[in-house]
Amino acid sequence: MSRFALLTYEFKESMFIALRAIRANKIRSALTMLGIFIGVTVVVLMTTAIKGIDNSFQQGISSLGSDVLYVQKWAWFAGDDWWKMRNRKPITMEEFERFKELVKLPVAVSPTNAFQQTLKHSSQTVDNIFIDASDQDFAKERNFTFDQGRFFTETESKSARNVIVLGSEIANDLFPYGNALGNEIKVGPVTYQVIGILSKQGSFLLGSFNPDQQAFIPLTSAFKYFMDKQHMSLTIQIRAANTAVLEDTREETEEAFRKVRKLTYNQEDDFAINQQEGMVDNYNKVVGVIQIAGLFITGLSLFVGAIGIMNIMFVSVKERTKEIGLRKALGAKRRTILAQFLLESSFICLVGGIAGLIAAVLLSYLVNQFIPTSVQYGAVIVAILVSLITGLISGFAPAYTAAKMDPVEALRFE
Amino acid sequence: MNIINIEHISKVYQVGTEQVHAIADISLKINQNEYVAIMGPSGSGKSTLMNMLGCLDTPSSGKYDFNGASVSQMTDNELAKIRNKEIGFVFQTFNLLARSDAIHNVELPLIYAGVPAIERKERAEQALMDVGLKDRMHHKPNELSGGQRQRVAVARALVTKPSIILADEPTGNLDSKTGEEIMILFNEIYEKGNTIILVTHEEYIAEHAARIIRIKDGLIEADVPVTNRYIPKMHAEVN
User: Fold this and answer.
1) For residue B129, what are the domain limits?
2) I want to staple B124 with a disulfide (CB 3.0 to 4.6 A). Which of A46, A207, A280, B107 is the partner?
3) Structure confidence by residue, pLDDT tens digits, A108-162
4) Do A270 and A74 form a contact (C-beta atoms < 8 A)?
5) Is residue B235 included in any domain, yes or no?
6) In this structure, is residue B166 part of a structural domain?
7) A·B CB contacts under 8 A
8) What SS3 string covers B149-179?
């Protein structure tokens, strides 16, 4: 026999021997597999869930528009300047009007403010809804698509009409039978007419900022019932033509608003220009930590599984000392014994890993109900490789012990 | 021709701080188609000599040639190969794989010899037939009597057509009637031209052999041919 043929032969036979041993100890093998099974399931599910959260965030963030700037009193991610920002002037409607005349680059500029209210229709109530109040151009800021109806018009905005556009989830909650359009609802004590329902577009990750859970009314009408025009500070939303000109638009915005505020060259901005990039950066930081922590913790469960295997393999080697002695007496070489036990442990791991993978795929359908996601192919390959390598590593020490046993001692073992 | 040629071997074990000379100085030749019994009380070095003869262990000093090959110089893997090809072991406690049937147990040494599956099965079947277990091939050890188990072990020893059969107290775990049957089997094997080395401490078992080597304190005390060898006869009813 050639050397290669001999090795294939030995591999095949060692495999049969390993399979026999696994079959002979069904319960023990199954319990050992359980460790790897759980480890792989958790790791795969974890990566799947993280991917889902990520997808969801990316999708959600794009529903807010990646080319939108927010001129606000407060900066989003600056903790240290809190005291300075506290003393800034609020952004007023008049400032907005002047600003709007100064800027040329944006596709849309709109004043917004948000407040919380309870929405009600007959017996259906939804509490503490974030309502964005703005003008007709607000629809251009966001990539809104409509399930039914439309956004409010310039006329409706200017004349402070009691009209409201509902996010898809809010519409479902208030009108379980789907007859929202044209109907009247109560915003707090005030009656509004539903003129549009958005199609589903957000993500649960955005929380209260998820457009699916928001409602939209004209800012003018909000001034009438819900806000103190003198004291609140507006957010000016500015949409750039595209992300390529976002930086230019930002510069123009800063210049224009400094002009509005009549700031001299040596004065700092007394307003903030926010953009989603900051949000994405922040998100990436947070998710990065979650990812590392999550994979570490789940990896730990895989590690515990591996230790379980090593443990069982040591017991198995000890228990089969006499068998090992016999096999050696009958001509088994060191490498044959080594292969037998390594194959046994890696087979246990592989089967556990594949079973864990199947479980993870099934469970990911469940996860999919909450976070749209799918099992990552990369994770599948990694899971199989990891379980195989786990088997080899955790099986090595016991297998090596078996391989170097003295046949005389082993045969004498009782 | 000599199969086994041992010259002045010794085996020293380190037990704590003390050195134990399990074999002090033994020289020995065993020829083709001999039937040798090795006798000695426990602690005589009999087991150590058997391990040495079986290539399970190598001597501390001295020379051991097996079919002209120098065993004393061999590596673990070379020893494994010699054991596999040249030696058929029969143990007192049978040492069968409990969860495998008779045929798989007999196939085992052939697996390590690299014999392809089909040929392996044929040869294992033939070996089981030769020891009279045609109907028991797919029985597991716990479904077999003690005598039948030892027959499986004998079949396993014979299946590789080894140069010697090395039997360590082969009747020790059997009642006298079944033990006798195994000795009949050994006699048949011997008469077919095989070489048998029998390790025992029982005089009447040793008398089945043609030559008795007595070991005491790691030395050969006596090495004599059996003048009136006991040849076991088949009983009227054998199962």
Assistant:
1) 2-225
2) B107
3) 899 999 888 999 988 889 988 889 999 998 888 777 888 889 999 999 999 999 9
4) no
5) no
6) yes
7) 59
8) HHHHHHHHHHCCCCCEEEEECCCCCCCHHHH
Q: Which two tokens stand for residue B62?
A: 């001295």
Cβ of A330 within 8 Å of Cβ of B99? The answer is: no
Domain count, chain B: 1
Asked if residue A109 lies in contact with residue A236, where contact means CB atoms within 8 angstroms, the answer is yes
Check pLDDT > 70 for residue A206: no
Lowest mean pLDDT among A359-368, B89-98, B168-177, B215-224: A359-368
CA separation for the pair B124, B153 (Å, rounded):
11
| Cα A58 from Cα A53, distance rounded (Å) | 9
**Looking at the partner chain, which of B51, B99, B113 has a beta carbon nearest the beta carbon of A331?**
B113
Summarize pLDDT for A227-275 with one digit per residue, the tens: 887 778 899 999 888 777 888 899 999 999 999 998 888 888 888 888 8
Q: Which residues contact B209 (CB under 8 A, 6 or more apart)?
A: B35, B36, B37, B196, B198, B226, B229
Q: Which positions in chain A touch B54 (Cβ < 8 Å)?
A: 329
- C-alpha distances in Å from residue A50, one per residue of A44, A177, A199, A364, B122: 10, 34, 25, 11, 58
What dihedral do alpha carbons A272, A277, A281, A284 form, nearest 10°? 140
Distance from CA of B129 to the nearest CA of A (A): 21
* Contact: A330, B89; criterion CB under 8 Å: yes
Assess contact for B136 and B128: CB atoms under 8 A: yes
Answer whether residue B236 is part of any domain: no
A170 CB-near residues (< 8 Å, 6+ apart): A119, A126, A129, A212, A213, A214, A215
Best of A13, A20, A330, A408 to disrupt the B interface (most B CBs within 10 Å) is A330
A interface with B, Cβ–Cβ < 8 A, is: 1, 6, 9-10, 13, 17, 20, 24, 322-323, 326-336, 406-408, 411
Cβ-Cβ contacts under 8 Å, B156 against chain A: 330
Chain B residues within 8 A (CB-CB) of chain A? 51, 54, 56-57, 76-77, 80-81, 83-85, 89, 91, 95, 97, 99-100, 108-109, 111-114, 116, 156
For chain A, how are helix, strand and coil distributed in percent, rounded to 5? 60, 15, 25
Paired with B212 in beta bridges are B37, B224
Question: What is the pairing mode between strands B195-200 and B35-39?
Answer: parallel
Please judge whether B97 and A323 are an interchain contact, meaning their C-beta atoms are less than 8 angstroms apart: yes
Contact B188, B157 (CB under 8 A): no
Say whether pLDDT at B238 is over 60. Answer: no
The pLDDT value recorded for residue B132 is 92
On whether residue B49 sits in a domain, the answer given is yes
pLDDT above 70 covers a percentage of chain A that reads 95
pTM over cut 0.80: no
For the record, the structure tokens of A278 come out as 């900051």
Residue B53's closest CA among B30, B75, B76?
B30
